[in-house]
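Q: Sequence in, structure out?
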Amino acid sequence: MKLSISTYLNKTTSAAPLAVFRVFFGIMMGLSIVRFWYNDWIDLLYIQPKFHFTYFGFEFIKPLGVYTYVLFAICGIAAIFVALGFKYRIAIITFFLSFTYIELMDKTTYLNHYYFITLLSFIMIFIPANAHFSVDNIFRRKTYQNIPKWTIDSIKLLLGIVYFYAGLAKLNSDWLFKAMPLKIWLPSKYDLPFIGENLMQQNWFHFAMSWSGMLYDLCIPFLLLYKKTRWFAFGLVVIFHVFTRVLFPIGMFPFIMIVSTLIFFEANFHLKIITFFKRILSFLSLQSKPENLRKIEAVSQFHIKKKAIVIPLFAAFFAIQMLFPFRYLLYPNELFWTEEGYRLSWRVMLMEKMGIATFKIVDSETGSFFYVDNKDFLTPFQEKQMSFQPDFILEYAHYLGDHFTSQGHKNVQVFVESYVALNGRLSQPYIDKTVDLYAEKESFKPKHWILPFNDDIKGL
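A: Exactly. Output:
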């Protein structure tokens, strides 16, 4: 066994797939930053709100006021440097740190694909994505033809985990036997040409989409790995992500996943892409002069520095990625209801949840009280997200308690009356309204103040 692992770690492969992946990754990330800036979301999501929901343990990470624009600019520039392979190691570390900071600034904006980008950029810090077809090659007068095979396989493995775990998450009774929440979402797409008024309204189509989505996620990593089914699988990837992009406002994620799956193709395919890039650069007169290029030495293989540290680090990283999504098993209550262990687990678009939360500020000594107008403190988007997520409700309760205490109110208690509807069910009481949330502390322990779910959802 030890010999086979050692043999695998010493295998090499062409550096071209990783170079192409780096270029597309940097371009996609750069476009994402530009898109965010163009739509004025920096101001809307990070500067305008009076209050920001934070991640447990990362409460110190906050938006930087108008300097948040500088943070986004740094992240965008780093992404372009990554695409060019210019000062790559510095660029990818800068991108990882700035993007992760952006992701952690406000929990309201959490998306699975943001988490994916953070993990992916972390991996890219340690692999030689600039070994081939990079500006760094010009400066060091050296280009590498081959790199360790495991460096490319690590990206394939991460993509496989994302897809496969998303498929496992769909093995639940709501998704498979009630077609929820697609049965809620798809009929609202009645304005789509040709299919909106007919297909999107059909019950059988809702079930077909649910089951095909589950099968797609479970099977696509294996279909991409197998050479004979790779082109078929890539066709499915394109169709699936383009279709989901048409149906749902999920930004750049479909395009990121499409270009990411190109890494499963063999080296010759990527060498053709690089040749195409070189022709474009030559046409635009951006490529270095031929006499300079001739001075670049072609080296057979790139050797990973500090391999004895990097390999155990990757082993630990992937062990965590495989186990962490199952942490919900440590909690006694229904996952979709309490959301304890829900995030960071590749549970993509599995539920439609709506809620209403009315907060009451009470003087524990006199019993006098008043109700809070959430609009005085939260944006409509923040209020919507807060209304059905218990950790949001708790954090907001503490914010209200601190705010009114600072305003001179005495003996402050914070209670909430909340109702939540999950996947088409009637709304039901969500939080125990007799519990003073201002006295409760956030932790990884089960939240005893979440009321029981009056139904049962079977599955993983």
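The mean pLDDT is 92.
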